[in-house]
C-alpha cells in the first residue's frame, strides 16, 4: 500500500507530541547535507535581521517565561 503525503501527515499529526518531535528531528536529519549550508546561511541572515530589529527598537522583547506562558495558553484552548 502506497501512502500519500497527506495520509502520512494525518497519521503523523495523530501521534503524541514527543513522537512528533522525534519524527520531525529525524526528517530534518535526513535532508540533503549540501542544502544544510544554504539553510544555515538563511538562518544566519534571519538571526541578524531579528537582532537588528531588537537593537533598533522596531521589535520589543519579552521575557522567556512570559513567552512560554503565552504558548501554553494558546495550546490550552
TrEMBL record:
InterPro entries: CHP02574_addiction_mod. It holds the Pfam family Unstab_antitox. This is Putative addiction module component.
Amino acid at each position: 500500500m502506497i501512502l500519500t503525503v497527506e495520509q502520512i501527515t494525518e497519521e503523523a499529526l495523530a501521534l503524541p507530541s514527543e513522537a512528533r518531535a522525534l519524527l520531525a528531528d529525524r526528517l530534518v536529519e535526513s535532508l540533503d547535507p549540501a542544502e544544510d549550508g544554504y539553510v544555515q546561511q538563511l538562518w544566519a541572515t534571519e538571526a541578524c535581521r531579528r537582532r537588528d530589529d531588537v537593537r533598533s527598537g522596531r521589535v520589543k522583547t519579552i521575557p522567556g517565561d512570559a513567552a512560554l506562558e503565552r504558548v501554553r495558553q494558546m495550546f490550552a484552548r
